[in-house]
Amino acid sequence: MTASTPGIRLRHALEVLRERSPLVQCLTNTVVQQITADVLLAVRAAPAMVDHPLEAPVFAGAADGVLINVGTVSSDQATAMPAAARAAAEAGTPWVLDPVAIGSLPVRTPLAHELLALGPTAIRGNASEIAALAGDGAGGRGVDATDSVDDVLRAARDLARRSGTVVAVSGERDAILSADRTTVLTSGDALLPRVIGTGCSLGAVCAALLGAIRGSDLTAHDAVLAAHALLGAAGTVAAREARGVGSFAVAWLDALDTLTPEDVVTLVQIQEDPAGVTA
Amino acid sequence: MTASTPGIRLRHALEVLRERSPLVQCLTNTVVQQITADVLLAVRAAPAMVDHPLEAPVFAGAADGVLINVGTVSSDQATAMPAAARAAAEAGTPWVLDPVAIGSLPVRTPLAHELLALGPTAIRGNASEIAALAGDGAGGRGVDATDSVDDVLRAARDLARRSGTVVAVSGERDAILSADRTTVLTSGDALLPRVIGTGCSLGAVCAALLGAIRGSDLTAHDAVLAAHALLGAAGTVAAREARGVGSFAVAWLDALDTLTPEDVVTLVQIQEDPAGVTA
Amino acid sequence: MTASTPGIRLRHALEVLRERSPLVQCLTNTVVQQITADVLLAVRAAPAMVDHPLEAPVFAGAADGVLINVGTVSSDQATAMPAAARAAAEAGTPWVLDPVAIGSLPVRTPLAHELLALGPTAIRGNASEIAALAGDGAGGRGVDATDSVDDVLRAARDLARRSGTVVAVSGERDAILSADRTTVLTSGDALLPRVIGTGCSLGAVCAALLGAIRGSDLTAHDAVLAAHALLGAAGTVAAREARGVGSFAVAWLDALDTLTPEDVVTLVQIQEDPAGVTA
Question: Binding of ATP: at which residues (chains A, B, C) (predicted)?
Fold first, then answer.
């Protein structure tokens, strides 16, 4: 492994995303469905928000990747989500769990644990959500984290090892953890969390990249890292010309559409297995 | 009929849309509700997304036009949609069916056929959706067409004749077909399908125009054609200054707001009963 | 009370909003969830759209303010809304009722009256909705008012006195009424009602400000007035550079993000207890 390896693998992951246009099924919250679909289209994936209990498992067998986000879970979705997760697993389709605002809320919290037991390919959340899923915290303040990324790294790595999944903790810095690899990513801008759906869209782009890399020599860890890098890099570019959160959101979609894989590599900082985290 | 007739009727249809501000009820998918409402407001219609099973049929009697789009059909919507279609028919309110992603999905596919039997004023979809509704295809890839517009023209015309409705097939070129008339429209831009909801909004604007033209000498075919021309022309204008999909979507709404009927006529190409299609 | 008092109290309310970042739970319609969340983030509040019947009352106890908007009421929301209202009342959490399109629709109309009986801290609607809630009108045209603000001032003040709540009637001018105070606000721009969700977001920002002012010497009336002033002032600024409804919406979010409390004070006109209204 040379010093340039992370950059080469990142560029490769972003290239296959553009080439393969993966079909991504999203069972996600109604607040962010539009921006999630627009983000997927911007990065050259094809979105489909099929979440009826009788349709979701049928579609999961045909999709290239599936996102399950419990942000506004309804009774129907609570039935559809485990069914879609099982169908994805049977078909070998990668799927991502986003445990939005779990902790003390009585429907989504046990549902997220039920979904965790079904073996997601990756889990993405903020620090408080990951801590709650790892059994190590009571959740955050609404949809906001009250823990920092660093606070929960140990719990996140334990969760990754125990469940054999990739765990991504989003925050000022992002941490991506799997059984034997920890990556810390510095990217983005303070405006990103001030636009609704940027985090939820990240879960969808993780599913897109996991679908895109199938058959390549890239790993699920590479795919999840690439998703975080792409959305963060677009945030850095968008912030340069934004005059507030409205024009930032527009410029972010433009950047997702137009940034090349090479651009993304130059816009982010990646630290593999940093000291103190891997200890 | 002179050579300029299509342009004159198009301009007339767009003028009555601006004058009458039709009230359009949308039973549509949750992904595109916001952009659909914004598009309706931009073109001077009034949106109302009333889709509760007990409220939808009451409202359908008061609306000027109704859109039924099965894109994220829920159990409640599956009850509300036929009830709204029946109430619209009883009140003489025009209504549009958008059979999103039908083909193999087990709830929306029979629902779309049930709705078809209730006599929509117009049907709008991509080539694969129209083929599936005509009984001549298995549907597309998620919400994307895997057939071309030309592939399905015969099936679409048969569907139009059999059901006595206007059938619009959207794609790189759009085809609008009724029992004795076929129109091919060239307009728009490649960025249009890369913004979520541009197609679904088209169904809503069809309903708006169908509501607006009542009492005029314009036909349902004219109304559906005008809707496609308006949204396509705005896409052409928006693409001129877009720096990606985000700024394109913003410029598209601006163009929908500000383009005059005359502008639209100059921005599109209309071919009536082209050879090879009417054979 | 000096002539400058309204301006001083307005600035104070907007300052505490920025300092305290209130957590606002929205049980609202699916059409406007995204823009409502983006507006709350722009004004420094934290949105959470928790509306499952089993989760909504749990969350209402932790939120700083709650919005209940019946715009696309579902069966689940019709159960969740009274439960959330009761939980908010028990916890002393202020909550806002937005009776969207009530009048003749058979689910939302009795639901809104049930919610009114639970004692909202404030009610926000257009003239026809307020008239219908006051028992003095049959509702508007879909989601649009068919009455003017002036038409319904007497009914609105009676409603405010009877229910002990603050009643805000939105329109070309806004009227904010409580038992012993009437304020007329002139602000905004004609483009504001042509972007979907600007009115619904106003209800959410009322909830944010009601949450923010707790513990200060400001009143609920001050908070509701400040919400209307902030969103209207941003509309005035946005209209200066808008090229249509699309760029207006973007510039409006930018202005919500960047306007200072002082800016807002200079951009609106406030009339306290104007003659003819208080008679």
Answer: 124, 170
